[in-house]
Design a protein that fits this description.
The protein is α/β, with parallel strands linked by helices. The protein is 45% helix and 15% strand.
């Protein structure tokens, strides 16, 4: 496998990561194999099938099972606080229905990292393939949205969505020494997070009161995200990073169930990946 000595950074966004899936499928078809892959939340899920070299798998899983209660269920969320059924996702779905190629994933020389938020500290932690005691749990933790999902335990520590503390880990990639850093984002260029609504804030404070550092990290989400987006704009303008993102506002919600809208977003990702390919190659070769 020819390897690009660079980092691929994948933002989360739940169902909005169909855009990311489209971009990564184009990368796979074009043999764009980055040596370091780091993903947050649904970005960590999408990164799995990129490293296992299975184009179309994220699309098939998401669109094929979005209306299957075994995969996504509001009833389960109310009963068990688990909007996504990770037991099904990493069990029957990945072993029998749409098999995940663990052999190729584990054999790949690519580094793969999932980002999750430690509940006790409110800080991001990084789980790398080959060094993590339970990578499936780490990806589940990275993708566990607050209030909609229960905490995931790894080595006797509890974790939630990586996006709560580190929505776009481009700085981590730079700290690892990579000079070429490619970001695939799930929001358009003009998007900035609005303040947390009073209703959400009340729910967070009630539920996470025993975890003050996590609560503080959650309340900081909009300001942190917007600072990162401003810095990403600056770094992109300086030619230090390369960014692929939706060309227009994304109307797909985090828990979107409209298959037509999901398919359109996936195709938009493919189109943008193909459109930006030559510019990406110039950036990598500069």
């Amino acid at each position: 496998m020819d390897m690009i000595n660079g980092a691929l950074v994948l933002e989360g966004g739940s169902m909005r990561c169909l855009f990311t899936a489209g971009v990564l499928d184009v990368f796979l078809e074009q043999e764009m194999n980055f040596s370091y892959v780091i993903g947050v939340s649904a970005g960590s899920m999408t990164g799995l099938s990129y490293v296992s070299r299975q184009p179309g798998r994220t699309r098939d899983v998401t669109i094929g099972f979005v209306n299957d209660s075994r995969y996504l269920s509001f009833r389960r969320m109310m009963k068990k606080r688990q909007i996504f059924n990770f037991d099904f996702l990493f069990g029957e779905l990945s072993h029998e229905l749409i098999p995940f190629d663990w052999e190729t994933f584990n054999r790949s020389p690519q580094r793969y990292v999932a980002v999750a938020t430690r509940c006790k500290t409110g800080q991001p932690e990084y789980f790398e393939k080959g060094r993590c005691s339970d990578l499936e749990a780490a990806v589940a933790a990275s993708s566990s949205m607050p209030l909609l999902s229960r905490m995931i335990t790894i080595d006797h520590k509890q974790y939630l969505d990586g996006g709560l503390s580190m929505p776009i880990p481009y700085r981590k990639a730079m700290e690892e020494g990579y000079e070429k850093v490619v970001l695939v984002l799930s929001r358009d260029h003009n998007y900035r997070k609005p303040p947390i609504s009073p209703l959400q804030e009340k729910a967070y404070r009630r539920y996470f009161k025993p975890l003050p550092q996590l609560l503080a990290s959650i309340e900081e989400i909009p300001a942190r995200y917007n600072r990162m987006e401003d810095e990403i704009d600056r770094l992109e303008e300086e030619g230090k990073i390369f960014v692929i993102r939706p060309p227009k506002p994304v109307t797909v919600s985090r828990l979107e169930k409209n298959k037509k809208k999901l398919e359109e977003l996936y195709q938009e990702g493919r189109e943008e990946g193909e459109k930006r390919m030559e510019a990406l190659k110039e950036y990598l070769n500069s």
